[in-house]
Structure formats: C-alpha cells, structure tokens
Amino acid sequence: MSLNIVILGLALRSSWGNGHATTYRALIRALRERGHRVRFLERDTPWYADNIDADDDVASCIALYGGFEELMDVYTGEVANADLVIVGSYVPEGIDIGAWVQATATGVTAFYDIDTPVTLAAVDVGRCDYLDARLIAGYALYLSFTGGPTLAYLNRHYGANARPLYCAVDPAKYTPQMARSEFDLGYMGTYSDDRQPTVHRLLLEVAAEWPSGQFIVAGAQYPKTVRWPRNVEHVEHIGPQEHRYFYNAQRFTLNVTRADMIRAGWSPSVRLFEAAACGVPIISDDWPGIESIFQPDREILIAHDGADVLRWLRDMPDARRIAIGNAARRRVLAEHTAAHRAEALEGYVAQLPRRSTFPVFTTELVS
Question: Which member of 68, 77, 145, 170 has the lowest number of beta carbons within 10 Å of its beta carbon?
Fold first, then answer.
C-alpha cells in the first residue's frame, strides 16, 4: 500500500553540521522507491540555505517554511491528510510543532529520534527544546536511533510505543573502489569534547608514534588548540557525495562514539554503515550492543587502546584486513540498508489504526 508521508525534520538541503541529512536522504529514497509519496518540511534557515548539497532526487520533495505560524497556515491540510507524519529530533520549535501535529493529523504520528540518548538526558530534566514528556505518549510511534534497554525505558517511563529505526546506508552510493589507499587510518566526525579524548588516543597518538603512517581527520569545529601531528591531514568538511571516495582512500577507518551513546549502547553511527558498505575495515571504540550490529574480530575490530590500533595498522596481513571489510559489507547489505529501514517503518505503521476523527487544534496544547 502506498503511503502519503510528511516529515518535519531538522534539514534535508544541507549536511553541514547536520548528520541528520544523510539518514533522511537514504530513508526518503528508499521509501519513494517502494512507491510511497514523501514531503519533507524544512525550516528555512540561512546556514543551511548557504550550504546546500542535496542531490536533485531528494531536493524535489523539500518544502520550506519560515516559522511555526507559516507552517500552520500553509501545511495544515497536508499534515491532516497524510497517512504518516514524522517529526524529527532537533526540529526548531519542535514542542509546539509536535503538539500541533498530534492535534491535526488523522494518520499515524511518529517522533523520529536521531539523538535518543541526548534527547532523553534533556527530557528527564525538562531541558529539551524539541520534545517534552507529555508529547512522548501522544505520538503513535517513537522511532529511535537507539535500541536495547532504552526502548523499554521509553515505554515504561514515558508511555511511548518505541521501536528501533537505526540509521542506514544507501548501497548504491557507498561501494568499494579498486584504488591504492592514500591513508592508513581516517576518521570522520565533527569535533565534540566527549569524543576528542578517544580520537586523540586512537588516532593522534598513534600517528605521533608511527611517523611513516598517513592519517586523515575530516570534520568541522576543531579548536585551534588541537595539535595535529605532521602526518595527519585535517579537512574541515567532506560532502556526502565525496564520502565514498573518503572511505575508499583508507586502509582502515576509525569510529568514535559520543559519551551519551556509549552509556545507552545499541547506538550505531551512520558512519559505521557507510564505511562497511565500502568494504573498508572499521576500528571502533567499544559500547554495549555493538556485537548485535557487527561481529567483533570478524566484521569489526574493537580497540581498547592505541596499541591495538598501531598493531593492526602495521602488522595485519592484507588478506585478513580485506576479509574483515568484505564481511562487514555483506552484513550491511543483508541487514542495514535504507530499504531495510523503510520496510521496518512500513511494518510499524501497518500495525497501527488510522485515527478516525479529526482532532481540534488548540493553543493550550502548545503553551
């Protein structure tokens, strides 16, 4: 059955400082390939307008709005008539928008949390700008980037109907390339205080200890105080269209996880799936549930310190390195593509009835 889907997300036009874009783009492509109609409503902000990098195939589904009042004035009909309305994390005025969606939509309503541990840490203390406790149970679905015990917590503590909807990869855009690797190890990620100690330990210190190795870090917002070893190249931004080339230029790639995600577990990064789809072996920090995504030592390497990383970079035979990358790619293609997520979403929606009455929107819901 074809669904009419409306998504209100952070941004689809630009991936600059916005990791949500890659996830939404892959999911939207997969949904449209499966015959669904998708409209993405995006707040028109100068930062994203000045850094557009979306392909035409997904850009065609974007509609812009200037603020909450304009959103209601122009798009109430679309939201009311949609079979599925999804509100994403970090959407500006997300609490007001969520209350409006819940009061207006006659189809299934869902919250898509691409930042679940961060969201819950803020909601638990009443400091989340885009979601509050009263809205969680009001969504028919709570789609979570994080699985495991977090889902049970959402259901038990907040009355949610939480289901996992991990990030994924578009396998048409992420494929292996037969080329000579330029770098021994690379890492892609915007700077964050909680990740940087691990980046320092597993990449920068390793580079300093192995001067003949070649390393690359791609990501914005790194402070000037970061001391880059001479054999580490830093690139501020690499657009999604260049990600495949970035991964394929590495012998190994590094995955580093945010502290909130480590505590919650079961929070795979989209970078894991992108790199694996390219057949590039991944070295990752450890977190609960990682073995449910990739099998350690066969499909992924878990590093506990820089010595592990240095040993693999210098001593691992190419045959084993390639075998690990190939095994991870097979796992991704079998379980972690955008088509798998679209199919899961269809299944969740099919289990829920369409609301039979048109609720009346009141300003009290948005106060």
Answer: 77
